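Section 5.1 Outputs to date
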Amino acid sequence: MSAAPSPAPSAIVVGAGPGIGLAVARRFAREGYAVGLVARRAETVRDAAAALGGLGGGPVATATADATDETALRAALDSLTGALGTPHTVVYNAALIRPDAIGDLSLREHLDAWAVNVGGALVTAAHLAPAMAERGSGSFLVTSGMPEAKPEYASLSLGKAGVRALVSLLDGTYGPAGVHAASIRVDGPVAPGTAFDPDDIAAHYWRLHTEPRGRWTHEAVHSGDA
């Protein structure tokens, strides 16, 4: 007999590795949320779960999946919702970050990058947002970046443009039912103790999640400025 879902509000983080993903998970755990973690490697989610211990949140559930493997990703999300219930917030933080210029990659390589940067977010939203909309509340937050396309990061620039378009589509589809879609743009290299400290960046996710429906914004920008 399976356990009943946690009564605590829940957050699912796809791409829960060290950096922004773990910092966001910590923030929601500190706010009393149960947290579901998805990463490609078992040791990544194991370490992330251990880092959440003792923060005073609800239970922590973990699952492994490659964001480009639709079957595995959907199974991981089903495992987490089975343990935690329909999430109150979903954070998509997976990305393929590498320098490449136009002409460096084959079409296949561009499609592979797109699958991580945009495709996984699309699958995650399609799998979870309908139940959130049926409940009438929730947020779907996607890590973005790069305010302008950079020639030295062609595949990532294309992916982040796709993410922003996806957020607009999600807002048009699920916003009227109460699901707040937004992106968080991080305009610099993430590192603890710097202007791009992941814990400071995580504050944007919590703020967007808790914005009143009548005052929703759909993008936060962390530029590193005070």
